[in-house]
């Protein structure tokens, strides 16, 4: 279940509570869900009960329990917990493998994009990066992440950008720079933006110039550590070995694309379904139990992608996305040997399903790398 789908589910629960007379409030137009804050739990949380408590004339905890009763057992939700003064926390349930893969293939590289941050900051989120190469790259990527979750973003730098940052790292900022370190005034709509409402982007600076690494490795080196950790700038980001996380991610993507080409040469394509054959009489809910353990690890990583994107955007932490891409890459690697038929073996439904799963994983890797501003080559 995506944040948008969860938001609609909560909104329906509010509407039912009003229709059945348990709450006397105007139904809001939208309910915001986001990764839980400190003290929360699960995958997502909402403060809608706190918002409705005063107009409903009831304690927030009572409103939360009213909504919790209607949300328990809803499709796609495995657990609903009330914490603190009335926050409703959700753990999203699993999705049948075929349905998850179909959803990823349908949405393509926009899988995981949502609207959880739409309207944040009064309509516009303003990022202002320090005049430092790591801060500039973080600002560029944070803008991409925030936009992927529905936020309207303007990003600027304290002072002019170095030409090498634009040329080598391909950093693209929305607002022109001015000599006094503030965003320029010639950008359309600047008059409607509060100059004092902004988020400063100041990660710990890099100890050395990353530009000799080239765009992709330099970006990865600056984004892989958490903002408060000092990055390592060295040739380890260029080696074509398993010890290099960026290589593992790009290699996994290239293998996924290569399998698709090889399967086409053999005359078959991806078809989402059960990776392992199962009896026609077995119920759908046992399908995940039939999947190999390694496949379940990959499915969980793919299903977690929307949550990771939302958390990386909400917490201004592109390193979360980078680590997630490594987890997806490591999870898909064991699948590769079983995707294509061997010898005289004919392509089966399981082969088509494995191929679809590999293509879905490659799609998630490509979309994540794109948000980090890094190429996902089809050949490596």
Summarize the structure.
The chain is mostly helical and 380 residues long. The protein is built from 13 helices and six strands.
Describe the structure.
About 45% of the residues lie in helices and about 10% in strands. It has about 375 residues and is mainly α. β4 (about 125-130), α5 and β5 form a beta-alpha-beta unit. The longest helix has 23 residues, at about 350-370.
Helix-strand layout with pairing:
Elements: H1 3-19, E1 44-46, H2 48-56, H3 60-71, E2 77-83, E3 87-92, H4 97-107, E4 125-129, H5 133-148, E5 153-157, H6 163-167, E6 199-201, H7 215-223, H8 245-265, H9 287-290, H10 293-303, H11 305-314, H12 318-332, H13 349-371
Parallel strand pairs: 4-5, 4-6
Antiparallel strand pairs: 1-3, 2-3
Radius of gyration: 23 Å
Number of strands: 6
Distance between termini? Answer: 34 Å
What structural category characterises the helix and strand content? mainly alpha
Q: Sketch the topology as an H/E string, one letter per element.
A: HEHHEEHEHEHEHHHHHHH
The proportion of residues in beta strands is 5-15%
Outline the biggest β-sheet: 3 strands, antiparallel
- Tell me, rounded to a whole number, the average pLDDT: 86
Unreliable stretches = 176-197, 277-290
Helix content: 40-55%
The side-by-side strand order for the widest beta sheet comes to 1-3-2
Shape field: flat
- Count of DSSP-assigned helices: 13
């Amino acid at each position: 279940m995506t944040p948008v789908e969860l938001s609609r589910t909560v909104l329906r629960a509010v509407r039912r509570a009003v229709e059945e007379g348990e709450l006397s409030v105007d139904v809001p137009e939208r309910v915001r869900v986001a990764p839980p804050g400190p003290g929360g739990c699960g995958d997502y949380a909402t403060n809608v009960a706190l918002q409705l408590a005063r107009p409903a004339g009831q304690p927030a905890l009572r409103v939360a329990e009213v909504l919790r009763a209607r949300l328990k057992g809803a499709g796609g939700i495995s657990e609903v917990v009330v914490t603190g003064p009335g926050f409703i926390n959700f753990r999203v349930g699993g999705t049948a493998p075929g349905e998850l893969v179909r959803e990823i293939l349908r949405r393509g590289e926009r899988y995981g994009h949502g609207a959880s941050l739409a309207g944040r900051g009064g309509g516009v989120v303003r990022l202002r990066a320090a005049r430092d190469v790591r801060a500039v790259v973080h600002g560029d990527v944070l803008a991409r992440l925030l936009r992927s979750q529905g936020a309207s973003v303007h990003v600027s730098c304290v002072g002019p950008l170095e030409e090498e940052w634009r040329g080598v790292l391909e950093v693209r900022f929305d607002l022109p720079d001015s000599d006094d370190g503030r965003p320029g005034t010639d950008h359309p709509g600047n008059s409607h933006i509060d100059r004092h409402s902004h988020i400063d982007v100041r990660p710990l600076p890099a100890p050395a110039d990353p530009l000799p690494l080239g765009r992709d490795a330099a970006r990865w080196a600056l984004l892989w550590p958490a903002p408060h950790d000092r990055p390592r700038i060295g040739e380890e980001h260029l080696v074509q070995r398993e010890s290099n996380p960026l290589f593992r991610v790009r290699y996994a993507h290239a293998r996924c694309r290569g399998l698709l080409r090889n399967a086409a040469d053999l005359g078959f394509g991806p078809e989402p379904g059960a990776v392992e054959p199962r009896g026609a009489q077995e119920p759908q809910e046992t399908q995940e139990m039939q999947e190999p353990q390694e496949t379940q690890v990959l499915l969980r990583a793919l299903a977690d992608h929307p949550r990771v994107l939302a958390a990386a955007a909400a917490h201004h932490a592109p390193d979360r996305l980078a680590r997630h891409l490594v987890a997806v890459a490591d999870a898909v690697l064991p699948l590769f040997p079983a995707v294509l038929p061997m010898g005289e073996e004919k392509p089966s439904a399981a082969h088509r399903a494995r191929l679809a799963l590999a293509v879905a994983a490659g799609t998630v890797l490509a979309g994540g790398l794109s948000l980090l501003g890094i190429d996902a080559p089809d050949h490596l």
